[in-house]
Amino acid sequence: MLSDGLFDLQVNGYAGVDFNDPGIRPGDVDVALEAMLSHGVTGCLPTIITARPDELRERFRALDAAVEGSRLGRRMVAGYHLEGPFLNDSPGYAGCHPAAAMGDPDIALVTDLEVGLHRPILLVTHAPERQGAIAFVGEMTKRGKVTAIGHSAADFETVRRAADAGTSLSTHLGNGLPHQLAKLENTLLAQLAERRLDACLIADGHHMSPQALAAIVALKGTSQSILVTDAVVAAAAPAGTYRFAGMEVERTAEGAVRQPGRPNLAGSALCLDQAVRNVSAWNVASLDDAIMMASANPRHALARPVGHYGLHLDAGRLRWNSALEPTFDGWDAA
Predict the structure, then answer these.
(1) Helix H or strand E segment including 62
(2) DSSP 5-61
(3) Which residues bind Zn(2+) (predicted)?
(4) What confidence score (pLDDT) does residue 334 get?
(5) Which of 6, 145, 267, 316 could join 42 in a cystine, given CB atoms 3.0 to 4.6 angstroms apart?
(6) What does the pLDDT average to over 215-235?
């Protein structure tokens, strides 16, 4: 079976490489991208998470220089995902992100972070209940960027206003939330009800059960469901201890990633082809739809910045064997 290559909208690191490491080098990027390519991923948005402004500047400049100097970065990386620091800092919503570094949406900060970069920030995850968030979304939309709701307690009205201003995605829907929410008035229901939001989902069996995943996909539909990994340095790597964005994280033998001594997850060790296999095996969607959720759907979610910045997302081609393992079969363009 042939298909387009997969595309990951949210990947913090891979194969022992942390995209948030200010010491990252071109060779590191190629190690990560080569490993992703071996799992069928032909494009991605390397993701920088919440940090202080000076740390964000350092991390973006280091990552961009490494991508530009790498062999595969120019073809596989069209831009970046900024997840934070404009998130809800309350317990349960912040997750593994450093709450002390969070703040209200800041247009000037995004402008500053992009100075000198070879590739733009294409996607910004934010909490629309924060002060100034709706105006921020409007400005990001004018600049051709995609905004997503994540690590947020936004209610029905706030979610609607964010969508009115241009927000079009939910980042890892169902996660970045407290375990206990109000029964009928909560941000998960608000985002599920908003028809203009596509749902990004982590299908690893740790971030949500197969049954919960099936419920969300049934409500959103496969055309508005996107598979992401939220992978960190421990993806495509053995169980053990790693450094992610200045934090120590542990990958268990079962594939969950956590900070030592804390119950919450800290990203994932998921590979995107495994997410496709999971969705198919769990009968959440057909195999064709599962592949669509990891290939066509994420690329469609980037239609605005692709047009605004004149980008080309070369999907390439994959060949899948009977075990549903993909092999890269070449690029569309020379």
Answers:
(1) helix 53-69
(2) PEEEEEESEETTEETT-TT--HHHHHHHHHHHHHTTEEEEEEEEE---HHHHHHHHH
(3) 83, 151, 172
(4) 57
(5) 316
(6) 98
User: How many Å apart are CA 30 and CA 7, to the nearest integer?
Assistant: 16
What's the rounded Cα separation, in Å, for the pair 187 and 128? 11
pLDDT of residue 264: 87
pLDDT higher than threshold 90 for residue 317 = yes
What φ, ψ does residue 124 adopt, rounded to 5°? -125, 120
Structure tokens at 311: 């980008």
The domains located in the chain, with CATH, are 2-328 (3.20.20.140)
Confidence of residue 332 (pLDDT cuts 50, 70, 90): confident
Apex CA 127: angle with CA 123 and CA 133, to 5°? 85
**83 carries a ligand binding annotation:** yes
| The pairing of beta strand 80-83 with beta strand 121-126 | parallel
| Residue 152 near residue 88 (C-beta atoms within 8 A) | yes
Q: Mean pLDDT, to the nearest integer, of 86-97?
A: 95
Query: Encoding tokens for residue 96?
Result: 């593994």
- In order of 115, 279, 295, the CA distances from 292 in angstroms are 34, 11, 5
Sign of CA dihedral 207, 210, 212, 213: positive
- Asked whether residue 81 is marked as a ligand-binding residue, the answer is no
Read off the pLDDT of each residue in 163-186 and give the average, rounded to a whole number: 96
For residue 318, give the 3-state DSSP assignment: strand
The DSSP output letter for 77 is: B
List for the chain the helix, strand, coil content (%; round to 5): 35, 20, 45
**pLDDT band for position 92 (50/70/90)?**
very high
Do residues 276 and 288 touch, judged by C-beta distance below 8 A? no
Whole-structure pTM value: 0.97
Active-site positions? 230
